[in-house]
Records
---
Amino acid sequence: MKPINQIKAIGTVTKAPKYYEKPGSQFISFSLAVERSFKGKDDRPIFDYFNCKAFGPIAVQIEQEAEQGDILSIEGYLTTRRYQMNDEKRFVTEIVVESVEKLEVPPTSEQSEKTLA
């Protein structure tokens, strides 16, 4: 069986994406909050927070279209890397985004009532 490393997620951009550009190279990083399918105590939603990054045209698209609070549908793969900070090895798991779509937020019933009034 061929190994599969694929992830799809829909979530909210938690803070403004950080975009970097060098001649011939574009890179962006951002965090995505994804709500779990079950609730926690007091019926509150539970979120997982994923570090995401993208390169090239996808990075440019995200930089132009996405900002904090937007809902994105992403597809990509998981990657891990390690680095050293203050003589301590650290490991990071990230989603490398290969495709992205900005989703429209349906209006809440309160917003709909204001529009109809």
Note: The domain at 13-103 is CATH 2.40.50.140 (OB fold (Dihydrolipoamide Acetyltransferase, E2P)).
---
Amino acid sequence: MSEVHHATVFFTGRVQGVGFRYQALQVAKGFEVSGFVQNLPDGRVQLEAEGAAPEVREFITAVQERMEGYIRQTEQSEAKRAAQYAGFTIR
């Protein structure tokens, strides 16, 4: 299995109950990325994305731009690792 670029992003703000996960899923359709987006019990949203580095970074930027009015803070980490996901889903 070949390595892909992987990013984990935690979004803080008014990010639950505003369609954040649905919007992330819609944005993902325009990019060649796999992964998931999910609500966390502490009120944040977690996004995991993998693919070619430029695609992953542009996808995350597009999600941030689409939901900018709701995001107060983001925490992001990136790494190279074996692909783990097929498609992009809401959890």
Note: The helical segments are 20-28, 53-66.
---
Amino acid sequence: MTAAPSPAKKRSLLRKLLYLASAAVLLGSLLLSYMQWEANTLKFHETQAPAGCLPGLSGLRILVLSDVHTGLPMLEEAVHMAEQAKPDMIVFLGDLYTDYQRATHAGDYIRQFQKLSAIAPSYACLGNHDMALAGNVERILKEGGFTLLRNSASFITVPRLGNAEFKLAGLGDVREGDCFPDKCMAPADPAEDSPMPTIVLCHNPKGRELLDRYHWNLMLSGHTHGGQIRLPFFSSPLLMVEGETMASGFYPYGEKSVFVTPGIGYIGPGRFNCPPEVNLITIP
């Protein structure tokens, strides 16, 4: 028969368990603090598009913003970065708010978007979180000087590039059933020698799967937050949404390219090894 542990051994075991629990709480608190710090430390990332991505538009500089999620201080910091970057064009790819929130601080957001649109021609599409507050978000963007493209397109001339022209098509959100490329995009025509270069704004990169019949060269997307949490030694982020394989950066899609920005905001406890970004894309 096994003897029962002595009171001294029980106390020793209890102390060890308390030490372990305290260490776990401390490590958890430190990790959460770090994740909050990283989520609020905005990076400026300049990148070059794949060669031949947009014929005739070499040198075009596009500043990409997405997924604010009510992070007004982050948007203010992004404005300062945009002022230094001097892009030819600014795009906002949706999710100004989170859909369970009220459209607060509208005047503050309008002022920040006005500062952006004063830097360069500015365009936007809506994200899935914007749909519940679509009227408010549309008003903020329009009063902020942004052209909202919701299943619509604009034809853009770039004086700095010798009046080079391209088409900019903005789609509604795929997840919310508001994506209708037939309203703003031309069918692909293999017989056409030099179709107009076309950039697509689509909050969710899954929108690419609806565009196989249409002509386009480059899609700009957000939505993924880059995965938010990237664990060391794991090839893909932990929190990818809806089985998406495109987390952040450039990806080939047939002969086309998709760029996904991690965005400047977040949802949940924070970010880990996946900082928020303002992106400046240069067309080679």
Note: The chain is about 25% helix and 20% strand.
---
Amino acid sequence: PSLVVCDCDVLDTLPEREYRCGCAEVIKYGLLNNAPFFNDLMETPAKEQYEHVISTCVEMKKQVVLSDEFDRGARQKLNLGHTIGHAVEQCSGFTLLHGECVAIGMAVITRAAVKKGFCAKETLDEVEKILKLYDLPDQTTYSTDELLNVALSDKKVANGNISLIVPEAVGKCSIRPVPAEALRE
């Protein structure tokens, strides 16, 4: 785009639930690759720093997209929380909003990362803390089988592997191809 216009005043017109859903996507950017931004969100509510939040997220997305225009590498990281999130969204019959599902997806994948030894429990503690701070869900009632049946139809599945975006620490995530059936563990 040649121009991006961001009007912070529009955010104050959103219903609270929709606003919180947007915060899930904002939190994703901090967890993904910007620990100082994540900490800013922990210390100061997003509502009190709209310009900083928007400019940071827009710049981060711009840099990722410019580095991977065709979504074959680093840009895939923008899907943090989305593989599980989309499955939760579909299982709920879309009664849960996208941002709520992304929040759940980030928490679920971080729990799995701790279980597999990819990240420390402290990372999960921070993720759960910020989701609670922004009144976002971090649990799902859907079974692993229900979620996997949906997740296996995701665009990120190739050759029997799902590309998962896995937190290693706040501000650091990696792309890990995981055999789909191994996710049942």
Note: Residues 16-33 form the longest helix (18 residues).
